[in-house]
Write a structure and sequence with these properties.
- The structure holds two protein chains of two kinds.
- Helices cover about 55% and strands about 10% of the residues of chain A.
- Chain A is of the alpha/beta class.
- In chain A, strands 4-1-5-12-6 form a five-stranded mixed sheet. A five-stranded mixed sheet of chain A has the order 9-8-10-7-11, with helices on both faces.
- Chain A is elongated, with a radius of gyration of 27 Å.
- In chain B, α3 packs across α4.
- A six-stranded mixed sheet of chain B has the order 6-7-8-3-9-10, with helices on both faces. A four-stranded antiparallel sheet of chain B has the order 2-1-4-5, with helices on one face.
- Chain B folds into two domains: about 120 residues, P-loop containing nucleotide triphosphate hydrolases (Rossmann fold, 3-Layer(aba) Sandwich); about 70 residues, no CATH class.
- In chain B, about 35% of the residues lie in helices and about 25% in strands.
- The chains are: A alpha/beta, B alpha/beta.
- The interface between A and B is medium-sized, with 23 and 29 residues.
- Bound molecules: adenosine-5'-triphosphate and magnesium ion.
- Magnesium ion binds next to α1 of chain B.
Chain lengths: ~500, ~230
Amino acid sequence: MTGGRQGGRCGGRWAVAACWLGLIAAAAAAADLDDIRARGELVWGADQEGGGPHVYVDPENPTRLAGFEVDLAAMLATELGVTARFQQGQWDRLPLLLGRAADCVINGIESTPERARDWRCSRPYFAYALQLVARRDSPLDSPEALAKEGPRGPWRVGVLTGSAAETEMRRRTDFAVEVVGYDGTVDCLEQLRGRVLDAALMDDCIASFNADRFGELRGIGRPFAGGTYTILTAPDTPRLSAAIDEALGRLITDGRLKALYDRWDLAGRQQMLLLRDAAEVPPARRGSLADLIRGALPLLLRSAGMTIFLSVASFPLAILIGLAVAVGRLHGPAWLRPFLAGYVEILRGTPLMLQLYALFFLLPKVGLALPALVAAILGLAMNYSAYESEIYRAGLKAVPAGQFEAALALGMTKWQSLRHVLVPQAVRIVMPPVTSDFIALFKDTSVCSAITVIELTKRYSVLALSTGRIAELAIVTALLYLAMSWPLSLLSRWFERRLERRSERSQA
Amino acid sequence: MIEVDSLAAVRAGNRILEAVTLAVAEGTVTTLVGPSGGGKSTLLRCLNGLETFAAGQVMIAGHTLIAGDHPPRALERVRRDVGMVFQGFNLFPHLSAIDNVTLAPRIVHGMPPSEARSRGLELLDRVGLSRFADARPATLSGGQQQRVAIARSLAMEPRVMLFDEPTSALDPQMSAEVLDVIVELARGGQTMVVVTHDHGFARRAATQVVELVAGRVHRAGPPAEILTAGGR
Ligand SMILES: Nc1ncnc2c1ncn2[C@@H]1O[C@H](COP(=O)(O)OP(=O)(O)OP(=O)(O)O)[C@@H](O)[C@H]1O
Ligand SMILES: [Mg+2]
């Protein structure tokens, strides 16, 4: 057992949480208009993975960013007398860049009361509506058809995590749907094409933008439940947000914004209405901590259940596969051993996240669409089986050679000797490292959020963003993790003590 | 019962056994003696196929082993008829004494657990340890462990028993307990080959003494002939 590996693998998410806390505490005053002018640069945050038509990597020239918001950012910067600089961030965490890495966020951020409460929101600059998308051969003919279950049970509908589409889908209790959250539109559409999903809900401009690339998909019914995009700035930058509002006003009145939307083929009817009478978003009140916890705790607890389920379902599988691989490498046929060694090296040498992606996003391309939960359990089990196999290999080698000989001398076959004599002893020897690996896996389940499984960390990050109570919820989430991993640590220490006592006795 | 013909064994380029020829009649006890490194353990392990040899032939308990590798099945059949007791006992530490004894009959012969247990208890009784049936090996003394190991081998009802220095890890008191069990077995007509430095035991129980020196049979004959006064 190497301490370095454990630290490296389980540290990630916690490091992120800790950084958030630290940064929030240390956050200096955000740069306001004067600082930006002095610096000569307006830094705007967006997620280039979020996709077009907002901000995306130009497929013709991958070093260049394209998108109507790239152009908008440049125009705004010019209005402020500075140049625009892009800052990458994960879409559902973009607001966290404010006051630190970015001055504003321009990335299809829908106006909501929660956002207006926690950040400064500009006047609307774009109107969107939600478009349902499905495969051309889908029986779905309108969004209302979601009210009745599909042939395979509830409709599986993909949405961008944290988007208005997600809020809308989760709000619609009249729909028989299972909502699956994604970090990027393209991932979501790929899964729809690969039949993992039945439909996807997204901003209409995104649906039209991707229409060519996903010819097998079509819009279902008319767009509905619309809203507007807003530019976010930090709460303590009143002059910047006022300047942005004024600049937007100028771009709207002199027709430059319309020209931009015309260029991007985004000038639909709603857009025109918006440009005529853009409305302010009403500010909302910040709720009490007790209310927050009362609202969030049931959700967090349910997701903690998912974290436990993922660990408990994948670890026994990891142990079985790991044991089989270890036995195969030590005692299996010679031709098999290089393959098993390759299996271990590949799984140990590549990130768990990548393996989960491969299982979830690549397998459907060869016709094997695994449900997210199955992919998550399988991915965790395979990844950990590589580590467990190395532990078991060491454990099997630690059983004295005389044990194997004694078993063989009694007329047992090689497999009988392994099964009844070697493996039971190896299992006892490796109990402590295996238990501590279970704790590591338990924390690694957070990576599964990358493939749409909502477990504790993901639930935290969604809640933290939608409520803005990042620090308070981080503490509650951390306590939940501790409450679950602490008993495991005790168990692992108990095993270790028991083994120590036994080896003392056998030396006596 | 055992016929070894012109056996030669090579390890790491060295000739460990050279033209070893000997015979052991059914119901007799042969002791292998000789200086350390003489090849006694190697010869014994060639007899039950735990090690391979380069030339010659072994006939044991109705089976024939020839030079080179054997298919695992053939070796398993030989070992079911040839028991072996090791210097270091090699009891299975995760099993109780009775489970050590019953494991092989149960999984190799498919003997029902209840029958295996009652026969196992008889065997433990024979080596004077029925009280310790449920004890883990780690809680037993060396002499007790070696007696359990003997019972474990006997449980397969071997036609030949091989002992490799069964008492050299034990103090004299415990040695005596173990040797008494082996002598008792010999009286019962068990065919045995015993590697030992204990000339007293050889005089007491052996029909034949074979002295291996530098991998060759230096002398062989009845104990009185081979073991001159001054031996231990
Ligand atoms: N696998 C091996 N590789 C190399 N040399 C070996 C191997 N096995 C045995 N030998 C050598 O063969 C010789 C005979 O070994 P063996 O264990 O049979 O002797 P022994 O008569 O049992 O000695 P002792 O009384 O010390 O147990 C020794 O010199 C030993 O070093
Ligand atoms: Mg020896």
